[in-house]
Amino acid sequence: MTAEFDRGEVVGYIDHLLVTPSTYHIIDYKTGDVSEDGVADDAAYYVEQMHAYAVALAQQDATRSVRISLVFTAIDADWTTELEPAEIESIKEEIRTTLLAEAP
User: What is the pTM for the complete model shown?
Assistant: First the structure.
């Protein structure tokens, strides 16, 4: 997936994507070691990656919500959240601002 901005782009690969008429569902598999207590911390570590995916998908269809599931295979656990279109637009602006600040 590529999220395009005036001053750059963010590129990544979604492990698994389900598409319904109202929702994109990103499923990203994490194979590293994690404990049950560490799932929230690991999810926080990956949130920017997942937000970039959500923005890229919204550039295809801004009316859909984006559900994000991180599946931690080592402990058979998952973490899930859902972003509504307005939230994704806000994330897009945050990324755009960051890219502008880092531009030469």
Answer: 0.86
